[in-house]
Amino acid sequence: MTSATGAAAARRGGGARELPADLRGFREVQRLAYDCAEAVAAQLRPGVTEREAARMQREWLHERGVRDWFHLPFAWFGDRTAFTNFRIPLQFFPTNRRLEPGMAFILDMAPVHQGCTADIGYSGCLGLNPVHDRLLADLEAHRDLILREVRERRPLREIYEDVERLMIRQGHANRHRAYPFGVIAHKIDRVKERRWSPTVFGFGTQALKGLASDALHGHRDGWSPLWSPYKFSDHPPQPGLWAVEPHLGFRGTGAKFEEILVVTDSADPQESAFWLDDDLPHVRRWQEEKAA
Amino acid sequence: MSRTAGTGAGAEAGVGDGAGAGDGGGAVVAGAGAGLDGARERWVRTGGVELCVAELGDSARPTVVLVHGYPDSKEVWSEVARGLADRFHVVLYDVRGCGRSTAPKPLRGGFTLEKLTDDFLAVVDAVSPDRPVHVVGHDWGSVQAWEFATARHTEGRIASFTSMSGPSLDHFGHWIKKRASRPTPRRAAQLLGQGAKSWYVYMLHTPVLPELAWKGPLGKRWPKILQRVEKVPAGDYPTASLPTDAAHGAWLYRDNVRARLRRPRADAYAHCPVQLITPTGDAFLSQRLYDDLDHWVPQLVRRTLPAKHWVPRTRPDQLVAWISAFVTSKEEGDPARKTVATGPHADRFGGQLVLVTGAASGIGRATAFAFAEAGARVVAVDRDAEGAARTADLARLVGAPQAWADTVDVSDEAAMEKLAGKVAAEYGTVDVLVNNAGIGLSGSFLSTTTEDWKKVLDVNLWGVIHGCRLFGRQMAERGQGGHIVNTASAAAFQPSKILSAYGASKAAVLMLSESLRAELAGQGIGVTAVCPGIVNTNITTTARFTGLSADEEKRRQTKVARAYGLRNYPPEKVADAILRAVVRNEAVVPVTPEARGAHLLSRFAPRALRALARLDPPV
């Protein structure tokens, strides 16, 4: 870990929830990923392409010791943030679309560091974009809604539908429906550290192996590591770590956040589910807006 | 190169003429032309003629010069001038040989664009010596003004130019050359199309006959012809000077058309921002004439208007709105800010007033956003106050210059009347009305109570009736066109054993729209029935399912909502179809593929639809 990240961790320190050791590793890597997103976002200039932005993320994290990925970094600019006219999954991969002033962008990466996985999404815009600001502000209600309903142990499929209803009431479209299986979230877990960890279509094979084995176990026990609108998600939240990624779209502009939700089998509602970290860029932004 | 030099010499000569005429100056005389009450009048002597100039409004405000066409006099602008006068210093003048201005002697060679440019400069020097002016031209006024806007020696005297129904002869010449030199089938068709529309130009080139016709039978019948063919409202236009205006004006064509079309200037680039207003129903000018205009005009704003040739008479309110917005943006606008919306059909809906009912969700909301992106002012009406407010809020974010929310139940006659009064008083006359509010009702006929029937008919049918009645009347009374969109349904032509009440209400809307379309066609008001089909909106979660217990109804709602979600046809596509339908003035618009299929079958294989109607629904 570099001194920069250490300093960032020290800066935040304080009021955060006391975490068991096995979760602390996940929080570290999630913070590392968000630091990367902020660092790369600060370097984005008009004319930078999605491919360049994705490479900047990959190199930043590689310099800080990331060798394996749940998935390689994505970058979406302009109307690609709302997945306009996406038909096939290959369209998610970074293109030569150039960033222009006023354009919204999303950086999405899932590094594995010291065996712990994070999967984050960071939305921003270059200069002024009132639509993007509104979308980001509207995401706050979804973070609260998801946590509340997971603590109530509502079936994941129903929570999915409630989130979608809220998006529609807000006037937006549900864009996480464009992800494979239309997922709003997926499970993540520890990954074995291997010397060689290849990726297939941008996804790390080790992480995929974990997801596949979860899917197999879940299939036997009646749950799924994918949180989708379909029948196979019609079960209460399964304990573990979920990377939750509600994604709003409004007329060619999209915004999302993605972070880890910890679900436990504790009987205490407060402990049964909580966001792994409350000190993240989008959360800080909402707090600053409230304070202002 | 030699051509450029030649033009330069011509321009110099023009300046000489103008300076020579400048000594004429102008004595202000109180008086008025017909329909221009309260105008200050003055005479400007230039190049051997005396021009009659009328002024309205505060002369400290930005000056807007209105130039009339053929066969007209400045009175063609009376409605527009009145509308502009409270915000601008409005100047109108009779072109030489027209209205009360005197004609040059001899007539031949007295109407060249160079001389008309000198006239314009003399008028501008008299009415606004220090500040550049905003020019607005219609027909030949626009042809002239293109010359003003592209000639070198007028540079700095024109702040903006709004053109309607009059191309630059130079651009026209290049347009013809381009199409004639490489005639692809499309280009040849464009050339022949415009060639046919220009029949009157050939007539006007015959000697003496046009003059005889205008001073004889044609002049007498012209007002009636305008009313019948061009739908120009009767009144104090055309004026009594029409026969001489038309006879003298024939020299506009004879002096310029052949010369300019044969040898168009190569440097006819506009040196000011241009707003181009194209009437789509113009009998004399093809819309294709302006295809290459971006090449000539660096700052071009396009507008289209569903109207015939004489827009200053038939659509004055819309012209006033567009001219005001354009002039204001050039006078005080932030040049960095985009003043014109960029969404699809922004040329058509920019600045128009659009009212959408049922705008808090689904198709209504998406339609409000689509109109907002096209730059329209939006009134979002719904009984869900919060949703309507949210729609108006987001509409402003995506490009609506203004947006308002109103909480009204469309089935409530008194509330709708109040809304109509408020909208007319505060926002203006609605240009596009979208009667979209509707509720769902499913179940067998025998389990449908009279309460259910009342409810569904009240919203789905009476809501549309109230909207059409109140706002349609406002549109008709204004007499400047408009459009009404009623949301019917594929269930209007697809029978179904579970949709008897809903289908009946929507079939009524469909036939109401078709009949109303026939009734209002003569007044330039279009009516469209949109039949969406299965669209992913929350109509399913609010729909009533008859003959079920509360629990079962809830379950059915969830199931149907999921099925609609799986179909996942977005309301945004319906909104796009609605805008397209208004632009094209379509009568019945089925949207989703299944709706289009059912529409087709209803005409060619109605028995197949009847067989489908008997099937149990899959959910």
Observed structural traits:
heterodimer; A: 292 residues; alpha+beta; 5-stranded antiparallel sheet; 4-stranded antiparallel sheet; 8 helices; 21% strand; disordered N terminus; B: 619 residues; alpha/beta; 9-stranded mixed sheet; 7-stranded parallel sheet; 18 strands
Quick summary:
The complex is a heterodimer of chains A (292) and B (619). By secondary structure, chain A is α+β, with helices and mostly antiparallel strands.
How would you characterize the overall build of this protein?
The complex is a heterodimer of chains A (292) and B (619). Chain A is an alpha+beta fold and 292 residues long. Chain A has helices at 3-12, 21-43, 50-63, 130-151, 156-170, 205-221, 269-272, 281-291; strands at residues 68-77, 104-113, 116-117, 120-125, 173-174, 185-188, 199-200, 203-204, 226-227, 240-244, 247-250, 253-256, 259-263, 273-275. Chain A has a 5-stranded antiparallel β-sheet. The longest helix of chain B is centred in the C-terminal third of the chain and has 29 residues, at 450-478. Chain B contains 23 helices and 18 strands. The model of chain B is unreliable at 1-32 (pLDDT under 50). Helix content of chain B is 48%, strand content 15%. In chain B, the strands form 3 sheets. Chain B has a 9-stranded mixed β-sheet, sandwiched between helices. Chain B is an alpha/beta fold and 619 residues long. Chain A binds chain B through residues 130-131, 134, 164-165, 168-171, 173, 177, 229, 250-251, and chain B through 361, 365, 369, 373, 387, 390-391, 394, 397-398, 538, 541, 562, 565, 568, 570, 572.
